[in-house]
Write a structure and sequence with these properties.
about 30% strand; single chain; binds adenosine-5'-diphosphate; binds magnesium ion; alpha+beta; about 25% helix; Rossmann fold; OB fold (Dihydrolipoamide Acetyltransferase, E2P)
Length: about 375
Amino acid sequence: MKAIDVSNLNKAYRGEDMVLEDVSFDVQQGEFFVIVGPSGCGKSTLLRIIAGLEEISAGTLYMNGEEAGSKRPNERQISMVFQNYALFPHLSVRENILFGLHVKKIAKQQQQERCLEAAHLLGLDELLDRKPRELSGGQRQRVALGRAIASEAPICLMDEPLSNLDAKLRTKMRAEVRQLQRRLGMTMVYVTHDQVEAMTMADRIMVLNEGSIQQIGRPLDVYNYPQNLFVATFIGSPPMNITKTTRKGRRLQLTDGWTAAAPDLTEDVYAGVRPEHLTYAADAPPSFFATVEHLEILGTETLLMFRMNGELWIAKWPGQWDFREGQNIPLKVADDHIHFFNAATGERIGSRPLPAGLTMEAAL
Ligand SMILES: Nc1ncnc2c1ncn2[C@@H]1O[C@H](COP(=O)(O)OP(=O)(O)O)[C@@H](O)[C@H]1O
Ligand SMILES: [Mg+2]
C-alpha cells in the first residue's frame, strides 16, 4: 500500500494565483522521499497540505489507502519537524519531547519509556532537564527530531529541518536523520531547497519549480538524465554548463571546430555538459580550446572558468591544476556526455541511453 498518494492536486491561497498546479506523486512505505526546489516554489505548502494544516483547492490526497484530504491533522498519523525547531522555551527537553503524547492519551509509564528511548537514540540522555536556551542549535534540532520519534507516527514530514545549522553540523545531521529513518522504518517526506541534501538523503527526489513537478526519480537518474533545462541546472554543483548550438548539415556545432551528431529535430537545440565531463585533452584530439578566465584551486579539486559563446562555463577536475589566467588549453568532451534540450520548451531530447560501461546497478 502507498503511504501517500497525491493526484492532480491544485492549491491557490484565497483569491491569489495558483501555488501548486496539477501535482501527482506517491510515496512508498518506508521510503525517504525528498521534495526539492528553489524558495517560493510551493514545497512548504505541499507539506502543510499533507499534514492537514492547509486545505486542498482541487485533487485528492490518500494516506495508507484512506482518503485523507478531509481528515484533521491529529487523525493523520504524522509527525512534523520544522526549520525553526518549534520548541517551547519554558519547557525542558523532556517535556518538549513528550509534548503531543499527552493529547494522544498514552499512559505515563509508556510516555517516559518512549522519551528515554528517543533521547538515547539522539544522544540527549544527559540533557533531559535543560531548557532549549541552554542547548546548541544542533541539540535543539535533535530535540525536535526526538519529539517526532517519540510520537511513533508512521509518517514523518520535515520542512528544511537542517537549514539553520552550520555546514559541518548539517553534514553530520544528514547522515543521522537518514540512519534513524532506516532504523525506525519511517516513511519520510523531506523538504529542502538544498540539492546536495536531496542527492545524499533521498531514495527518490521530486524536483518542484513554480508549483509544478519537473521530474521524479532516483537521485542518480535525475542527475544523469535531467528531464529539462531547469532540472539540469538545479541539480548538481557547479550546475550543468549550457550553450546554444547552430546546425551544420546533419550535425550541431557547439563552438568553432566542435560539433556533435544532431538529434533528429528542426527546432533550436541547447547543449549541456556537466563540469566533470569537460576533461583536459592531454593526448586525445581536443573538442575545442578554452581560454582560462579564472581558476579556483580548492585542494581536492580545481574549478576552471572560461567563456563558451559568451556564457560562463566551469570545468571541475579532481586534484590541483595550476594553469594561468589567459592560458589556452585543449578540452575534450565525449559525445555521450552531451545532453540536448529543445530550446523552445526546455525539454530533454532523445532517449535515455546509459553512459558507456555503466549499468544502473553499478551506478547505484
Ligand atoms: N498563507 C499564505 N497566503 C498566501 N500566499 C502564500 C501563503 N503561504 C505561502 N504563500 C505563497 O505561496 C508560494 C509558495 O510558498 P511556499 O509553499 O512557502 O514555498 P517554499 O516552501 O517552496 O519556499 C509563495 O509565492 C508564497 O508567497
Ligand atoms: Mg518553505
